[in-house]
Amino acid sequence: MLEHKKIQNLSDYFVELNSRREKGVYFYRINGYSEEVGEFIKKYYDTARRTGVVIEGKIPNPDEGNLAYYNEIMGMDFQMSMDFIHVSLRKWLPRMNEFQRQNVAASIYDSLDSLRKAGKTENMLRNAYIKFMCWLYYKFERIVNQLGENHIPKILYEGQISNYELMLISILSNAGCDVVLLQYAGDQGYLKTDPGSVLSDSLQMEGLQPFPQGYCVKKVRDEIQNELNNERLYGIRPSLTNCTNAWIKGNGLDDIRESILLRGNDSRFFYNCFCRINGAEDKLTYANELFRLQQELRNSKRNTVIVSKEIPRPTPQEISEIKRSNYTSGDQMIPGLACNIQYGANPELQRILHKTFVDVMLAESQKEGENLNRLTNRAVYLLCWLRRYLPKLFINWKSPEIGCFIYLGGCRNENEALFMSFLGRLPLDVLILCPDLNIKCCLEDKLLYEVNYPESLAITEYPEESSQVKIGTAAYHAERELDTLMYQDSGIYRNQQYVKANVINLQTMYEEIKLLWDQELKYRPNFSTVNGVVNIPVIFSKISGVKDGSVSQYWESIAALITEDTVVVKSAPYIEPTASGPMKAFAVEFYKNGKLQRNKIKNHPRYPYHLLREEMQEFILDKLQLLIERKLIKGIGENGTEYTVIAQILDLPKEILRLIQKFDFTKKNPKLIYINTGETMISLQDSILVTFLNLAGFDILFFVPTGYQSVENYFAEKLMEEHQIGEYKYDMQVPDLNNISTNSTRPSWRRKLFRRG
């Protein structure tokens, strides 16, 4: 017989007999659970299922049919002797070899002898013997000829074992069989049968917890079956695996910036970051940091996609392009929909996408209460979004390249959360930004790394290149002293050092406007230069009402804002709707397939900007393209308004052109003050001009004492801040602002007061 030995770790169970540290068998009781134990049970069950015996519940007592067959073959004789048992085993279990019979016979004899010593009668011993023989034949016959072999058979017993069951399993264990008892209710019941733990050992490991509610061998079996089914779902596995966040330093944006080549050098992995940043470390510089990040990503040629507020829902056309059938199970649905993932340009990426889709959908299917229709709809959403963003994220992809997906605002629903979990396992850095702590991101993912800051900041649009970003000043956020903020980024620049600029719209308090108005841009909050591009903070506001109802002070406050680079419009409209510029008749030729035809414009004989610096011509055309792309004016892309936009921007007033020509992006910027005291709506042409000048870096103030919505009519979105400063006044006449005395200590200005028509 073989002795029971102690294991050093659970993997010892799977070592063959001749390779074990000590030649013997293992018989352990498992009374607690951990992930390691769960994996062991799964593997042990699979081994016992194939080459051993699994007992779920009790071993059934021999029924009448079993006993009748035993009586027919063996008779009901019984002798308490080794020879009798040995001879009986040769006849009853002929597949056993002599060594196995000897061990089993000796073990049965020892067990019966212990019963006799405990006071059991001869008849009781005979009944126990017949029960053992029937159990050996009907339950364990498949392993009796493997007992003591190098490849040791396994027995897995689930539940509270009885005295006679324990005896028989001990007989088999001693004859050369490994045994595991799963005791979900603990060890108390077992110790009543074997108080000294003589027949088996209790597994002692760190971190053992009670078994999960409902845990059983059936669940283990179902899990193994699911894993087998999953293998069929995956097909050829990718050679690359994600190493997500294991390499990061926990520095948030700096981890995203980290060079791909410095993240790791194991060719089996791609090294990506999956991170959510809640709140803002410094809300005064937050937007500027984001702006720098996206510029650095694009300058490093990393494929980048940025989404703000929400991921636009799939369109009906996108949904219709997903091939699908009627499914009766998740096992049908997942591989069926996975066929929509096609990336023939790179088979390895195709396998990564396929595997990741199967992974996340299987995980979703296992969630409680997840029905098939709902799961299918979520999978279709995921595939629509993947098709939408795949070309931008993985164009010409090859390992070890890592693109970047940035989502500002956080996941608002489970569809977005599922898509983020999917992207977070691809060769992508996924950055989720939740600066507003009042808006909760619903994503929960064990791979996700979180960075938390205490400051909350309401920002809804990611500050992309040339986008209209709103960044609060110190007074707006009540964070720092105004003068400290204004001068924190001071620097020295040569004249006309930069030829490209992007605009950041400042959110300000009304009282701040006069402080910021005549200040050099380099001293304004969040001014910066990144890779030859200046990020210039500008003012774009509407002032409604008259402060304290004082008309005289109202005009004085406006006069105080007029600098030598200020254009003042005294009534609406500034540009008449009937105005006809030199390029209006040709505007249709200048815009094709969503792109401005720059060469055609600049080579046209009536092109009016030949005299401007070349870089300033490009600057004007850049902002014209941006205005159309962002559809900032109503009707663009719908009724041909884009051609009106082109005609107007190619016919700028001479005074404005001169201000643009001399504009140095690091110094003071040109201004536009637009006064509308009446009930006339500003024209479409005025709206186009004002929007363009904002993109070009002008400070713009609308003064509307009536409070009427007389300036917003043609804007497609809210472009400017509105300040309500006092009571509304009507029928006011604009005085000669040149002759109004102000309290300013600045020298007098050359004021430009003009109006077409």
Automatic annotation (TrEMBL):
Residues 22-218, 251-487, 508-724 form the Putative component of 'biosynthetic module' domain. InterPro entries: YceG_bac. This is Putative component of 'biosynthetic module' domain-containing protein. It comes from Blautia wexlerae.
